[in-house]
Design a protein that fits this description.
Strand content: 5-15%
InterPro entries: CCA_bact (IPR012006), NT_sf (IPR043519), PolA_pol_head_dom (IPR002646), PolyA_RNA-bd (IPR032828), tRNA_CCA-adding_enzyme (IPR050124)
Keywords: ATP-binding, Hydrolase, Magnesium, Metal-binding, Nucleotide-binding, Nucleotidyltransferase, RNA repair, RNA-binding, Transferase, tRNA processing
Pfam families: PolyA_pol, PolyA_pol_RNAbd
Distance between the termini: 77 Å
Shape: elongated
Radius of gyration: 26 Å
Family: Belongs to the tRNA nucleotidyltransferase/poly(A) polymerase family. Bacterial CCA-adding enzyme type 2 subfamily.
Enzyme class: transferase
Order of helices and strands: EHEHEEEEEHEEHEHEHHHHHHHHHHHHH
């Protein structure tokens, strides 16, 4: 039995980046041997085990062959006879197909270190084209390592284009696609993810609505520079699309509820937010009511931030942000207790509260 550290932990150590998760590969062992040493089996598709003390994952070396469409269309084979090289060749990129033994010796049969030094994202073997999810993964890695000067190799981009043209991307589940999209959006250069998908034809297949929405990439980049939340980044990406298109993309990838809501609200209200300084108090109140700033202030704050990202660079300023925040604070400050004490309730109370808030907003605007 031989144990190797593989994949991202090796790659990031060589890049001098922090290593958070470690993947371990076991060569020359059986399921029974692993269990005899106290490893707890998990995973139904292939043998993965949890270390009895560290809780880290250890996978048996395995091979795979294509058996169906999509990300899950593979048959795996794990046995003590599978070599390290056979396991590594099934991986996506050469920079992810390196291993280290327990003494720290590097095993690099597919020249990942060379590509790492050259800042190239290159597929390991032609089998890359069998897994459509790898199109999204490579685009995500391009976004992650763009600040270091990485680019996708031409021959890898060609394979990605073949996958896009094959229709295989349509076999990806919404859940798996969203997981890659979410991770890509949270990278430091998320716009690169979209650019790579566009360059290989995958954007046309996955998110055709974004094909002519290049301004959103600038806004998305600004959101990343300002370390905005996932919901803000998603809304920045979809800003400028029609409401129907936003709803279609939300549903296609089953985006989290907070991401969906903010993106839809941006589609409906961003233009009026940009004109906030000219809005009549009644229009301003309508906006605040729509956002339910009384119970969900954070959602309105993220809406403001999304609008602000579209107005950067900061030297241009976005005075609408502070104006809208002040309006929300003003509306929230209206005390309902005096109205209730006067005997109002139900619809009458709601109308009276709305009138008081409108009066407060009129004073706020004329201050």
């Amino acid at each position: 039995m031989q144990i190797y550290k593989v994949g991202g932990a090796v790659r990031d150590r060589l890049l001098g980046r922090p290593v958070s998760d470690i993947d371990w590969l076991v060569v020359g062992a059986t399921v029974e041997q692993m269990q005899a040493q106290g490893f707890r089996p998990v995973g139904a598709d292939f043998p993965v085990f949890i270390h009895p003390k560290t809780g880290e994952e250890y996978a048996l070396a395995r091979t795979e062959r294509k058996s169906g469409r999509g990300y899950g269309g593979f048959t795996f084979h794990a046995s003590p006879e599978v070599t390290l090289e056979e396991d590594l060749i099934r991986r996506d990129l050469t920079i992810n197909a390196m291993a280290e033994d327990e003494q720290g010796t590097l095993y690099d049969p597919y020249h990942g270190k060379q590509d790492l030094d050259a800042r190239i994202l290159r597929h390991v073997s032609p089998a890359f084209a069998e897994d459509p999810l790898r199109v999204l993964r490579v685009a995500r890695f391009a976004a992650r390592y763009a600040p270091l000067g990485f680019r996708v190799a031409d021959d890898t981009l060609k394979l990605m284009r073949q996958i896009a043209e094959s229709g295989e991307l349509q076999a990806l589940t919404a859940e798996r696609s969203w997981k890659e999209i979410e991770r890509a959006l949270l990278e430091s250069e998320p716009q690169v993810f979209i650019q790579v998908l566009h360059s290989c034809g995958a954007l046309q297949e996955l998110m055709p609505e974004l094909m002519h929405n290049s301004d959103s990439l600038i806004t998305l980049h600004q959101a990343a520079q300002h370390q905005q939340s996932l919901a803000v980044r998603w809304a920045c990406l979809l800003r400028g699309l029609a409401s129907a298109a936003i709803k279609a993309i939300n549903q296609r990838f089953k985006a989290p509820r907070e991401c969906q809501e903010l993106a839809v609200l941006i589609g409906e209200w961003a233009d009026r937010a940009d004109q906030a300084l000219e809005l009549a108090p009644a229009e301003l109140l309508e906006m605040l009511q729509k956002f339910d700033v009384y119970r969900r202030p954070q959602r309105f704050e993220e809406f403001i931030e999304t609008c602000r990202m579209g107005a950067l660079p900061e030297d241009q300023g976005y005075p609408q942000a502070e104006y809208l925040r002040g309006a929300a604070t003003t509306a929230r400050a209206v005390d309902v207790k005096p109205l209730m004490d006067s005997g109002l309730s139900g619809q009458a109370l709601g109308e009276a509260l709305k009138a008081e808030r409108l009066k407060a907003l009129m004073a706020y605007r004329n201050r």
